[in-house]
């Protein structure tokens, strides 16, 4: 932990509704830290980042006996992630929405909420990465579980935000996390993982069609460039 927060900082645990952040909350609670769990509300409707996440995270906090809060970041998510995603495809580029979400939503917005609304000193997450807090900077290193390492997705997170972050799972493997959750009988102990883009529920092609729709234009020969009609 960064030296400036002291030995027993108040910690906000970013709860995704999955097993990783649930285990983080349990580990820190057992270590005696003053905690509050919270979840970012990023989308309307069903899905991992919406209703399910709020319900599951709330159940875990209730089980652990720690307070639970939510923060409405639907506007930020729509602007920094979904608009960016749509505009990138419209321009013929390949977007990386998770990198932008980490930078602007999961870190910049949540660190601000952690410090200024919840009155906490640090934010803990269930990410697989290793942070080394030095005197003048914070460095990101790979997690012990190379299969689950998420440091690539943190490449654009501001150092000032990482400075107020801890990764309690830095030295854990996914198998150990599941085993711990099951041993503690956490509500999310058998939750399934998702590798999909959270706001795309029915496939990318369906999503892009719903955003852009069909557009009229000439029929072009791809080999010659001739307009056929």
CATH topology: Rossmann fold
How many domains?
1
Which regions are unreliable across 5 or more consecutive residues at pLDDT < 50? none
Morphology: elongated
Beta-strand portion reads 5-15%
As a percent range, the share of helical residues equals 25-40%
What order do the strands of the largest sheet run in, or round the barrel if closed? 3-2-1-4-7
Q: How would you state the average pLDDT, rounded?
A: 90
Beta-strand segment tally: 7
Quaternary structure state of the chains depicted: single chain
Name the CATH superfamily classification.
HUPs
Q: How is this structure best described in words?
A:
38% of the residues lie in helices and 14% in strands. The chain has 229 residues and is of the alpha/beta class. It has one domain (3-212): 3-Layer(aba) Sandwich (Rossmann fold). The strands form two sheets. It has a five-stranded parallel β-sheet with strand order 3-2-1-4-7, with helices on both faces. It has a two-stranded antiparallel ribbon with strand order 5-6. β2, α2 and β3 form a beta-alpha-beta unit. α1 (19-30) packs parallel to α2, α1 (19-30) packs across α6 (174-183) and α3 (74-90) runs antiparallel to α4. The chain is elongated and about 70 Å long. The protein starts with 9 loop residues before the first strand and ends in a 17-residue tail after the last helix. The relative contact order is 0.17.
Annotate the secondary structure layout.
Elements: E1 10-14, H1 19-30, E2 34-41, H2 51-64, E3 68-72, H3 74-90, H4 97-116, E4 122-124, E5 130-133, E6 138-141, H5 159-162, E7 165-166, H6 174-183, H7 204-212
Parallel strand pairs: 1-2, 1-4, 2-3, 4-7
Antiparallel strand pairs: 5-6
């Amino acid at each position: 932990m960064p030296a400036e927060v002291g030995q027993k900082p108040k910690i906000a645990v970013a709860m995704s509704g999955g097993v990783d952040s649930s285990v983080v909350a349990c580990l820190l609670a057992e270590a005696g830290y003053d905690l509050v769990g919270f979840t970012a509300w990023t989308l309307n409707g069903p899905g991992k980042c919406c209703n399910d996440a709020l319900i599951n995270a709330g159940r875990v906090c209730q089980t652990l006996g720690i307070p639970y809060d939510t923060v409405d970041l639907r506007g930020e998510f729509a602007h920094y992630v979904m608009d960016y995603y749509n505009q990138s495809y419209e321009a013929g580029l390949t977007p990386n929405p998770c990198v932008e979400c980490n930078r602007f939503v999961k870190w910049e917005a949540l660190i601000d909420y952690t410090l200024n609304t919840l009155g906490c000193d640090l934010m803990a997450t269930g990410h697989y990465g290793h942070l080394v807090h030095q005197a003048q900077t914070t460095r990101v290193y790979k997690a012990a579980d190379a299969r689950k390492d998420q440091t690539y997705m943190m490449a654009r997170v501001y150092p000032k935000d990482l400075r107020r972050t801890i990764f309690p799972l830095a030295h854990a493997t996914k198998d150990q996390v599941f085993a711990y959750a099951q041993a503690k009988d956490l509500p999310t102990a058998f939750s399934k993982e998702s590798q999909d883009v959270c706001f795309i529920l029915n496939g990318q092609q369906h999503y892009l069609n719903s955003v852009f729709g069909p557009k009229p234009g000439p029929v072009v020969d791809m080999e010659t460039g001739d307009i056929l009609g």
